[in-house]
Amino acid sequence: MRLVAQIPHPHLRIVIHDYNGRWILEFEGGRCKQSMKWEKEFMDLEKLQKEVIPGLIENVMNRMHQMHEDINRLK
Asked: End-to-end alpha-carbon separation of the chain, Å?
């Protein structure tokens, strides 16, 4: 797996990896992590960075909040 890009964000660590013909997009915040995959033949890196990631951020942040609430509830 090769690290291709790190996208700046004030609350999340966002990275893109290239692995086995796929883009692997990872969002990491606190103790939680979310990942998504796209086939490289159907998604180019520029579109992933400029259109897809900005369109996902709000939902990713909401899921991160829910995941952290679950963790805190299980303490």
From this structure: 34
Is 0.85 topped by the overall pTM?
Answer: yes
* CA 40 to each of CA 4, 52, 59, 61, 69: distance values in angstroms, whole numbers, following the listed order: 13, 14, 23, 25, 34
Amino acid letter for position 32: C
Q: Domain of 38?
A: 2-73
Tell whether the model's pLDDT for residue 75 goes beyond 90.
Answer: no
Question: Measuring CA to CA, how many Å separate 51 from each of 19, 30, 60?
Answer: 21, 25, 15
Q: Give me the number of domains the chain comprises.
A: 1
